[in-house]
Structure formats: C-alpha cells, structure tokens
Amino acid sequence: MKRLLHTLYGEPWWHLAALLASFALCGYALARLLSGDWWGVVQWAVGAAVVHDLVAVPLYGGADWLLHRAVRAGRPRSAAPVAVVNHIRVPAFVSLMLLLVYWPSITEDSGAQYRHATLLDPGVFRTRWLVVTGVLFALSGLHLTWRFRRDRSHPAD
Amino acid sequence: MNAPLARRRSPWRSPLRGPWLTSVLGAVLLVGIPVLFVTGLLSYAAYNPGLSAVNDKTPDKGLLGFYLFSWPTHPYWLYRLTQGVHVTLGIALVPVLLAKLWSVVPKLFTLPPVRSAGHALERLSLLLLVGGGLFEFTTGILNVQLDYVFPGSFYPLHFYGGWVFAGAVLAHVCLKLPTAVRALRSRDLRAELRTPTARTRPETGDTTGLVASDPAEPTISRRGALGMVGLGSLTLLLVTAGQSIGGPLRRTALLAPHGRSPGTGPGGFPVNKTAAGSHIRPQDVGTGWRLTVDGGAGTVQLTLDDLRQLPLHRAVLPIACVEGWSTGDQHWEGVRLRDLAALAGHEADPPGVFVESVQRTGSFRAVALSAGQVRDGRSLLALRVNGADLTHDHGYPARVIVPGAPGVMNTKWVGRLTFGATGFPEHA
C-alpha cells in the first residue's frame, strides 16, 4: 500500500494528508473570497505572486548587479568596493522598503480621500520619505568614511 | 569537482541562499504570522458580528466564525493593543516576508516543474501560500492608507483571504518544519553572527536544492543580510508605531497615516470620519436636533439641554481604529447608556442597544452594541470631551464611547437609540 502510494504520488502519506486538510480549509474560505468580484481577486492574488516573482525579483536583482558593476568598474576584487556596495545597498534597501509599504501615501494615490477623512495634509509624506532616505544614506556614508579611516590607520593585514 | 561544461549557468548565484538562512527567516514568520492571524480574528470578534447584520461584513462566514465570542469591555485598551499589534507587526514583517521569498525564489524555476503528483499538489499549495500572503499584506497595507483600490469591500477580502493564507501556512509548516529544524541545527547562529563577508561560505550538505550550484563570491555576510532585513523592519516599526502609541511619540510615526493630530485643544486628537465627509448638514445637528430613545414600549425625545440635565458621568477612554492607529486616553463626559436604558423603561438588566447616527449613508452609520457593553458604567453617550463640547468632527452633539470597542462602533452624531433592538425599525 505504502509502496503503491509512493509510486503514484511520489511522497509519503502524511504529505498528502497535510495538503488535503489544507486544501479543504483553503477551499472553504476561497469559495467565500471569490463569491464577489472573483476575477478581480484572482488577478490580485495571482498577479501579486507573478509581479513579485517575474518583475520585482529580476528588477531588484538586476539593479543590485548593476550597482556592483558600477562600483567595481573593472577593478579587481578587493574589500573596498564590496564595502562601498554595501554602504549603498543597505540604505537603498531600507528606503525602498519604506517606499513600497507607504507607496499610496508617498505618491498621494489616495490623497483626496486621506485629506477628507483625517483633515491632514497628504502632501507631507514624499518630503518625509526623501528626508529619511537622505538621512539613511548620510549615516551610511559617515560610517563608511569612519571605516576607511580606521582601516588606514590600523591596516588589518 | 568541476561542473560539466555543457551545464547552463544558473542565474541564482548568491552564496547566501540555503536552508539555514531560509529557516531563520521562516522562524521569524512562524512567530509573526500566527500573531497577525490571531489578532486579525480578534478584530472580527471585536465588532460583535453575531449581534446584528449591520455589525457583520462577512455574514456568509459559516464555520470560519466558530470562535466568535461577545467582545469584553475589560480591559478598556484591549482593542487598542490587539489592533495596534496587528497593523504595526504586519508592516514591520514586510522585509522579512520579502527576504524569505528571495531566499527560495530559485525553487520557482526548478526543472522539471513537476516531479510527481505530490510535487504538483505541493506547488499548488505554494501558489496559495505566496498569492494569499501577498494578497493579505497588500490589502492590509492599502486599507490602512485609505487607498481602496482592491476588488471589493476590505472586510470580506481580508478576512477570507486570511483564512486561505492560514490554511496554506499550516500545510507549509507541516511539510517543512522537519527540514527547517534540521537546517537551524546545522549552523550555530552565534557563530554565524561573528562571520564576516570574507569568511562567508555557501551552506554545505544541502538536500533542499536552495544552495547555488555555482555560487558567486560573497559580497555580504549572512550576518549582514539578516542585519539589513532587521534594519528594514526596525525602520518600518519606527516610522509606524507612534500612531498607535500616541502622546509625544505620535510625531515619530513619520510615514504612518495618523502620525499627526489634526489640531490642538480638547478636540484636536485624530479623526478618521469627518462631519463633512459623512455628509452631516448643519441642520442635522443644529438646535432642531433631538435624540430619540426607544425602549420598545414607547419613545422619549430629548434635546441637547435635556441630556445635559441628566446625571453626567466621566470615562477616560481611547479611540482605537481597525486601521491600527489609536488616540491616547481622552476624558469623555456624558450620559451613561444604562441610564438612558432606564429612561426608556429598562430599569434593571438593560438589553443591548441599536445606535443610529443622523448620517444617512455610509458604512457603520448604525451599529448594535451588546448588553454587556450597555451595562458597563463607562459606556457613555458623550456630550463633551477633554472639558469642552464635542467638535463637529468628533460627533457633536452626542456620540457613543464604549470601552474596548473598535472606533467605528463608537457612533458619532447619534440620532436614535433603540434598546432591545438589533436592526433598523420597520417603517410603516
């Protein structure tokens, strides 16, 4: 019996049991989730996965690769360019995370609705994001300068 | 060991990818996602959906509402805490979620795409996991920024989507937990946190296929990568949490929607539904305003002055929104709901109340409150806040304030209270 399942299914029995239990719950909820604008929901859920995997990942991977090329600029591998890359990479990553999460606020996508509901000015978020980004890059740059100075006065090897 | 020359170079060359890194990120999510799920379920319970159709935005929930219970009024800060955690933690987990997806992305492109029937089912489950997870995070993040671009009403989308995601997470944990535990034991976290880039090597003994077959030279250590993700989460936390903590820390929530107060003075605390936005006309809340109190056996009409003559009580309570932001404790003054029930004939053991706003359209212009909520002495029909009359945007002339209830349950511009009812009265 076990061998038959393995031949037909390719995985142990508990693998099938776990997935069937999960599909039962997901199916029950999905039937309700899709009872309205089902096509819209499918587009959003599948679209999010596709956009993430096929657009976002290649995009940020490619940007990271270009950053390396630009910083290294044909020089042989050494610790210094890698440090420069990371001191750009880290603040850029944090800044992009803020942009991603707060995209509707920063782009004022829902600015009118926001002002209407909260009585607050929707125009401040772009400036704030730019300032936070500037501070992140400035701190990173200062840290890098400090590291280079330290390494010059106490060469590691 | 030389790879055969004919083999195509994989584009996935990061030497950091491997079961250990994926499992560390997975372990963080394994703690965080259940907290999001439970606080999310609690938020639904906080609306007391079983009381009335107007409280329930997902009436076809079926078995998914199995856990519902009457939402308590103690402690009064309960919803402020659970919903603040739900939204703030969700936002702070975004970098971890994306890092986790980055760490496993080569698996998406493995060949052959399907090895067996079991593998096909597992990949289908992963589509529910990734699609469901991104859907939940996206709809939540858009909703707290009032950007209602998603396909339908937020409540059913986020509630049912949450259950789909939970179902997929359960399967994923069942199938991957043994691998993850083995992977976490394969490397010493403390040693890893002391390893610089120069000494970073790909993970060894991989059976999961996550480790690059042709790894590039490391450009960041595992310590550095985890630190970067952590810094992303910490920064998001710092620019968000203040809107739920309030006080002087509110201003630290630089990017959060409610990181500022709209004004100063007694009514200067944040608001999310204004008089103008709710189409409240001056004549609706002017001198002609009357509060109708109905107890089933007859109605009483009260002017604002009549209300002011009744015994006034104080309650110190916050406003806590489903969007995660909240105000600090405000000093409310008004007539106790149970005193109004007594006025309508329910001297002892008052029932729940159906509260209607003079607002004529829009979601939550009427809500049903439970008997427990009415009986709590801190539940008021408030006329004043922080020593002054309510402002128009905070519900002048009278609004409900109930300890522990979500913001929208605290109806503003109240026009009618019907004790013992759970729906709109039948109009002849």
TrEMBL record, chain B:
Gene3D superfamilies, sorted: Oxidoreductase, molybdopterin-binding domain
Stored Pfam families: Oxidored_molyb
Positions of the UniProt region annotated as Disordered: 197-216
TM region(s), chain numbering: 20-47, 85-105, 126-146, 158-177
UniProt entry tagged with the keyword Lipid biosynthesis: no
Highest taxon, organism lineage: Bacteria
Organism the protein comes from: Actinacidiphila acidipaludis
The name this protein goes by in its record: Molybdopterin-dependent oxidoreductase
InterPro entries attached to this UniProt entry: Mopterin_OxRdtase_euk, OxRdtase_Mopterin-bd_dom, OxRdtase_Mopterin-bd_sf
Keyword annotations: Membrane, Transmembrane, Transmembrane helix
Coiled coil ranges: none
Domain Oxidoreductase molybdopterin-binding: 287-422
